[in-house]
Amino acid sequence: MARIAHLSDIHFGANDPRIVDAATAWLEERRPDLVVISGDFTQRARVGQFRQAAAWLGKLRAAGLKTLVIPGNHDVPLYDVLRRFFTPLRRYRRYISHDLCPFYEDDEVAILGINTARSLTIKDGRINHDQMDMLRHRFAHVPRDKTRILVTHHPLFSMPIGKGGELSEAVGRHDDAVQAACEAGVHVALAGHFHRTYAEAADKMVAHSGGALVIQAGTATSTRLRNDEPQSFNWLHVRRNNEMDLQVIVWDGAGFRRASHVEYVREGEEWTAKEVVEPVRVGAMTGPAGLTSAAN
Asked: Where is the Calcineurin-like phosphoesterase domain (predicted)?
């Protein structure tokens, strides 16, 4: 079984240090096999913010935790126009990681991160055709029984992000990106960006999806919350490419606690969800398959 902590939207520069410390302590105590961080390390891509993010990553790594990280749109300068268009991710490469499309593989899982942040868009993301080719190539050599996981900052699919159920924008070149993920045999797609927790079978979101399970992380530590959803991150136990557990770990004002625990099982190309623990409800958030769950 692979134990993966999936965090997103850290936003140094608009974060709560107390929540950062609590998340760090939680990770150091649980010791996941891999910590995945799906972008937006900073609020405005400033040097001081990147230094804070680098120090935090260094602390995780010094504790012996492995990490896989990708940039988000907030890691591209917004108001520094020259830097935005000519060297958009230079600071990210210097302070966080030179590798914008990292790959991790062990006996249980193969995980590819793809950079979707772009200079020409303020908040939306894109995947280019070279990245799609890389996605196919990387997973082509992975044994079929391993779980293939794709990590992006911007989700591949449109999904509900507002209280009224309004849908988000899908990643640019959405149809081609979904086709590439399908051809690569992606089992799980992890993303962030919207500060909203969500999980759903891809085939319920778009036709011809290839049967991936789509999992969104909320913001782990930012003070910029949406729809009254608290800070949170995901705790995944991946048993096989057709069976996994998803726990949403939520900040309750004093510490991080489990909000929901759902078991996903895939038969053919269909994922089904079964809630393992019925949580006590403290504040509302969107959970797996559109269910509402909250901290216990």
From this structure: 3-196
Give pLDDT < 50 ranges for the chain: 206-208, 280-296
Tens of pLDDT, residues 144-181: 889 999 999 998 876 555 555 555 566 657 678 888 99
Helix (H) or strand (E) holding 276: strand 270-277
Residue 17, phi then psi, degrees to nearest 5: -55, -35
Q: What is the DSSP letter of 21?
A: H
In three-state secondary structure terms, 91 is helix
**Polymer length of the chain:** 296
Q: Residue 265: which H helix or E strand, with range?
A: strand 256-267
Structural element, H or E, at residue 237: strand 232-240
List, as one string, the DSSP characters of 36-62. Answer: EEES--BSS--HHHHHHHHHHHHHHHH
Tokens 């896989």 belong to which residue?
68
Contact 276, 265 (CB under 8 A): no
**Taking the chain, what is the end-to-end CA distance rounded to the nearest angstrom?**
25
255's tokens: 């510490």
Please report, as a single letter, which amino acid is at residue 61: R
pTM for this predicted structure: 0.87
**120 CB burial (10 A radius; 0-12, 13-18, 19+):** exposed
